[in-house]
Amino acid sequence: MVACLDAKKQLSTAKPLVKGYNFYKSGHVLTIKPCKKDHSAFVKSQVLPSMKKTAAYTCFIILRRQGLVQRAFCGCPAGVDGRCNHVVATLFPMEVFCKSRAETETATACTSQPCKWNVSRKRKGEVVPVSQMKFRKH
Predict the structure, then answer these.
(1) Helix/strand/coil percentages in the chain, nearest 5
(2) Where are the domains of the chain?
(3) 65-85 in b/e burial notation, b at 16+ Cβ within 10 A?
(4) How far apart, in whole angstroms, are the C-alpha atoms of residue 99 and residue 102?
(5) Of the candidates 39, 80, 38, 41, which has an alpha carbon nearest to the alpha carbon of residue 59?
(6) Where does the chain have alpha helices with state H?
(7) What are the pLDDT digits (tens) for 59-77?
(8) Which end of the chain is more exposed for a tag (fewer CB within 10 A), N or C?
């Protein structure tokens, strides 16, 4: 979010970044719904405000191909230009999801790994052919 803004506008994004992260961690993001139309990707989310818990703000985020934010809107008074804490709170779970998905894609599938549920126990003694075993009568 900060990388694509002018240096002049970056000063106004520091506080929403911190508050947005706190919103994300405290569970203010209710829903996130992706949508793809033509060659653009849209994200619609419902985020609770900081004070009133009765109604949620609706955020719309338009993404480019590489995942960069092209435009963002929010129903709150500060979200007209798309730089409010509700938009940021929507972006954090999206980042966590993308990172976890990338990690699972690089990991080997469970069917390619050795069997973990049917592992035999270790033997106490050495394995010896029957011809070399000594039997005693009790």
Answers:
(1) 35, 20, 45
(2) 7-104
(3) eeeebeebbbbbeebeebbbb
(4) 5
(5) 80
(6) 7-10, 14-25, 85-106
(7) 999 888 777 888 888 988 8
(8) C
